[in-house]
Write a structure and sequence with these properties.
By secondary structure, the protein is an alpha/beta fold. It folds into two domains: 146 residues, Rossmann fold, CATH 3.40.50.1000; 88 residues. The protein is built from eleven helices and eight strands. The protein has a six-stranded parallel sheet with strand order 5-4-1-6-7-8, with helices on both faces. Strands 2-3 form a two-stranded antiparallel ribbon. The mean pLDDT is 91.
Length: 245
C-alpha cells in the first residue's frame, strides 16, 4: 500500500457498490447464457467477468455513460470472450448472444434484481470499519435501485449514506458525484478514500475530486496502474485496523 494513502488518518470510506460490496447473482446470468447454448457454472462466469473489467474501464474512458445498452453489450461481449475462448461455434456467435442476454439481464430500474449478492466477508468488514469510527458512503453508478440492492443484501444498515448516480444526475468519473457525496456525508476529501473496481470510473473520478483512491483487483487481472490495489474490502479493513493499532 503506497505511503500516500493515509490509512491511519482516514475518516471516511467511499465505496462503489458493484464488485466492491455486491456481486451479480451469477445464477441468473448462467441461466440466460444456457438459453443460448452457453453452458458454464456461475463461478466460471464470475471469473470471466473479473477478467473483463480492464476492458470495460477502457470503454468508460472513451464514453459518455456507463449506464447504456451499448455499455452493457460491450461488457458482456468481453465477458464472453474470456468465457468462450476459441470454443466454436459459440465464439462466432458472441455478438448475438451478448445482445440477447444483455437485453434480458440489464433492465432499467431493476438492477437490484441482478446486483444483490453480498461479497464474501463484506458485512463483517463494514461492521468492523464502523467500530473503528469510519463513516461509510456508497458512491455508485446505478439506475436508481442501488439502495434496494444493498437492502436486499442486508448491507444498508451498515452504511451511512448511499449516493446513486441516477438520482444525483452525475456518473463517475464526473467529480460532481464525489462532490455530492462529500457534501451529503460531511466528509473531507483529504481524509476520504474511494474504493472501487474500475480505474476509469473509480480511481480517475475520485482523484479529480481530490479524494484518495484504491482499485480492487481480486485476481491480479489489471496491468500496471498508478494507484494502490487490494483484492477486496476485507483486506482493506485489516490494513486500516493494523494502521490504527
Amino acid at each position: 500500500m503506497p505511503a500516500r494513502l493515509p490509512l491511519a488518518a482516514l475518516e471516511t470510506l467511499f465505496l462503489d457498490a458493484g464488485n466492491t460490496l455486491l456481486s451479480i447473482d451469477f445464477r441468473i446470468v448462467a441461466g440466460e447464457l444456457a438459453r443460448h447454448g452457453v453452458q458454464a457454472p456461475p463461478a466460471e462466469i464470475q471469473r470471466a467477468e473479473a477478467k473483463a473489467r480492464p476492458a470495460l474501464s477502457d470503454w468508460i474512458a472513451r464514453s459518455v455513460s456507463q449506464q447504456t445498452a451499448d455499455a452493457h453489450f460491450s461488457f458482456l461481449a468481453n465477458v464472453l470472450d474470456h468465457l468462450l475462448g476459441e470454443r466454436a461455434p459459440l465464439a462466432a456467435e458472441r455478438a448475438r448472444i451478448a445482445d440477447a442476454v444483455a437485453a434480458r439481464i440489464y433492465r432499467p430500474g431493476a438492477s437490484d434484481e441482478l446486483w444483490n449478492v453480498p461479497l464474501e466477508g463484506v458485512a463483517d468488514s463494514l461492521a468492523e470499519l464502523r467500530e473503528l469510527g469510519m463513516k461509510l458512503v456508497v458512491v455508485s453508478n446505478a439506475d436508481g435501485t442501488v439502495e434496494r440492492g444493498l437492502t436486499r443484501a442486508g448491507l444498508r444498515g451498515l452504511l451511512d449514506v448511499v449516493v446513486d448516480s441516477h438520482l444525483v444526475g452525475f456518473e463517475k468519473p464526473d467529480p460532481r458525484i464525489f462532490a455530492h457525496a462529500l457534501a451529503a456525508s460531511g466528509a473531507r476529501p483529504e481524509t476520504t478514500l474511494h474504493v472501487g473496481d474500475l480505474y476509469a470510473a473509480d480511481v480517475a473520478g475520485a482523484r479529480a475530486a481530490g479524494v484518495h483512491a484504491l482499485l480492487l483487483d481480486p485476481h491480479d487481472d489489471w496491468p500496471p496502474v498508478d494507484c494502490a490495489r487490494l483484492p477486496d474490502v476485507p483486506a482493506l479493513a485489516r490494513m486500516i485496523r493494523e494502521a490504527r493499532a
